[in-house]
Amino acid sequence: MTGLSALEPVSAVEVQAAGVTELEAIEVTGEGGSTNRIEPLVRNKVSTAPESLPAAVSTITDEDIRTLNVGRDISNIYRRVPGVVANNIDQGDTGNGFRMRGFATNGTHGADVAVYVDGVPQNIPSSQGGAGHGPVFMEWLTPQMIKRVDVIKGPVSALFGDQNRAGAVNIETLDGGDVASSIGLDIASYDGRRANLVLAGEHEGFESLFVADVYKTNGYRKAAETNRDNYFWKLSKVFDDAKYSARFSHYESDFKNDGYLNLPALRAGSISRRDTDNLYGFGNANRNTIVVNRAPAYDEAGLYYTGYYENFRRVRAISNGTFTHNYGKDDRDIYGGRVAYNFVYPEIASLMVGADVRRDKGDAFRQQYRNFEPTPNFYYDFDMDLITYGVFAQGQYKPFDSLKVLAGIRYDRFDYDIDNLKFRNADTGYHSSVTTPKLGLVWTPIEQLEIFTNAAEGFRSPAAEYISSGSSSALPPSQTGGQINSSVRPSKVT
């Protein structure tokens, strides 16, 4: 017969006699309330982080990016940011458009938004092989390279220069210790193939990240091919209190694009997806970049510097007639650097002062092609040496715990040497400057509430075709016909 009985307490003496070790009691304490605690907001803190600015700032992390189907168009990363319109300009690797709500770009894709990667400006001035003045070409980036993207709406930061009128996009690449090695393979319809390899590791303090990405597709249309190779290698290490990094990237692309179909005709069945009503467009690109960086390793105070060199070559041919193309080409060497020092008085004030310089030297032209062959006629033809110098200061001060004052100022100077190879009498130099102040306040009456306001100016440099102008019709080179507009000023927005 089975019975039930209460268990008797066991004394410590009996436990020891049984050869069992008694553990001391563990005391667990906790606080009431929700586990979803609201973290203190950071805009009122003294920091160089973009989130500390008195403006709308959106941050995309590498974890966010891993949840996205980016595909062939890197612009898909930015489409989740409210108020931002990002897109691939056209079929093929033709560049990326960035627009921010409330700012018109007048059709010059990518202009008016300053884009930086690891401190290196990405906007290309006076591009003829792209889409106007200041376009951005981000196809060399893949999701496996990106650690963080900060989208700053408005020209409120003095750390960004040319094209920072509607705002800025600041991108930081990954280090070898931030990611695991991987391999991926995608196979899709219309001969779509993509393979990527990530090799990441750390040895004796050195972090290494290598990314290879090969993408090919034959496209949905008759002539809609894209062949793209990306290679990226970054090495970084902390020495004493500073983190140093060096990276190299190589991007190469070749593409065709068949234009756009007439949707009513396609629905009516009078044409097929393989049809085209004009010449297909085409292009290619080759881009090699070397970047070195230094930044404080453990806090925000200290010395920052960036140095870079880039060989940039891009061709884009757009059909503009039954037999003709507008064939644009950039062949440029771009190099420069930035140095800054951040003085920090914790929780009270900070002041970052610095300077940057960029030199862009090479050819940029648009030529008329007929039946895929060059003609002697040019729309534009420039040999340029564009040097931009900038100095900046940006400070923050908290007179009270609930109030932060921000102020910044930039001074930028342009020294250009422009040879107009289409109109030789319009050869000219250009020398001008622009000053853009920034001012903002952040008031935090309680921990979960921030009220902020700002007034700021941003600028956009003038394009070469504004300074040395002439007829944009397709004409052969001449000694006359051009015009010099040396009084044109950088355009500002407040």
TrEMBL record:
It holds the Pfam family TonB_dep_Rec_b-barrel. Gene3D superfamilies: TonB-dependent receptor, beta-barrel domain (2.40.170.20), TonB-dependent receptor, plug domain (2.170.130.10). The keyword Isomerase does not apply. Residues 226-482 form the TonB-dependent receptor-like beta-barrel domain. Belongs to the TonB-dependent receptor family. Hemoglobin/haptoglobin binding protein subfamily. Residues 474-494 have a biased composition (Polar residues). It is a multi-pass membrane protein. InterPro entries: Beta-barrel_TonB, Beta-barrel_TonB_sf, Plug_dom, Plug_dom_sf, TonB-dep_rcpt-like. It is found in: Cell outer membrane. This is TonB-dependent receptor. It comes from the Bacteria. Residues 467-494 are annotated as: Disordered. Residues 51-167 form the TonB-dependent receptor plug domain. The keyword Signal applies. It comes from Pseudomonas fontis. Keywords: Cell outer membrane, Membrane, Receptor, Signal, TonB box, Transmembrane, Transmembrane beta strand, Transport. Transmembrane segments: none annotated.
